[in-house]
């Protein structure tokens, strides 16, 4: 997922008269990727992808600011709707990064949120200098998911030796070496 702030940077650069190539380079992507990201952002703010309109219509920047100022900016709409329903929140305004940082991964999972969505939420919180409440895994499913994450990192050539030791400590497994 491409960071909303980077998409916003592309739109702002184009609105100021810049080219997609230079806007993309400024955020470390190609012109083609800048086109795709700008097109997606235009859909998110419900305005057409039209470079001339972006440069001449201030609605693009005002809708962009409204999108960025939403507490849930950076989360998928479907995930936001799922969280509001699962957590029984009154509205989207209640789903703030501060509120979410008081929950643990286990809390979210017990409310039916998938581990993939939990990873996305954690990434969203980390972008804001926050984190889900950190507690050790306490259900067999959480333990299994942590093992799978370690295995994936190992397969991607990360050194997981310290993670494996920490996992064993948290789950009460001792090496018999």
Question: Brief overview, please?
Answer:
The chain has about 180 residues and is mainly α. It is about 60% helix and about 0% strand. The protein has 3 domains: about 5-70; about 75-125, no CATH class; about 140-170.
Walkthrough of the structure:
By secondary structure, this protein is mainly α. It folds into 3 domains: 66 residues; 51 residues, no CATH class; 32 residues. It is built from 11 helices and no strands. α1 packs antiparallel against α2, α1 packs antiparallel against α5 and α10 packs antiparallel against α11.
Shape: globular
CA(first)-CA(last) distance: 42 Å
Number of strands: 0
Q: Could you give the order of the helices and strands? A: HHHHHHHHHHH
Give the total of domains: 3
């Amino acid at each position: 997922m491409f960071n909303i702030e980077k998409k916003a940077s592309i739109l702002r650069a184009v609105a100021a008269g810049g080219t997609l190539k230079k806007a993309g380079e400024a955020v470390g992507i190609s012109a083609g990727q800048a086109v795709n990201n700008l097109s997606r952002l235009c859909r998110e703010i419900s305005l057409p992808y039209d470079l001339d309109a972006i440069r001449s219509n201030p609605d693009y920047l005002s809708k962009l600011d409204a999108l960025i100022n939403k507490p849930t900016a950076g989360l998928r709409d479907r995930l936001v709707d799922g969280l509001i329903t699962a957590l029984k929140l009154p509205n989207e305004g209640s789903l703030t990064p501060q509120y979410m940082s008081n929950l643990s991964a286990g809390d979210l999972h017990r409310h039916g949120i998938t581990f993939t969505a939990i990873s996305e939420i954690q990434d969203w919180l980390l972008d804001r200098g926050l984190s889900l409440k950190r507690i050790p895994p306490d259900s067999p499913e959480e333990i299994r998911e942590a093992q799978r994450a370690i295995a994936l990192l190992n397969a991607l050539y990360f050194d997981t030796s310290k993670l494996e030791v920490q996992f064993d400590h948290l789950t009460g497994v001792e090496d018999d070496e």
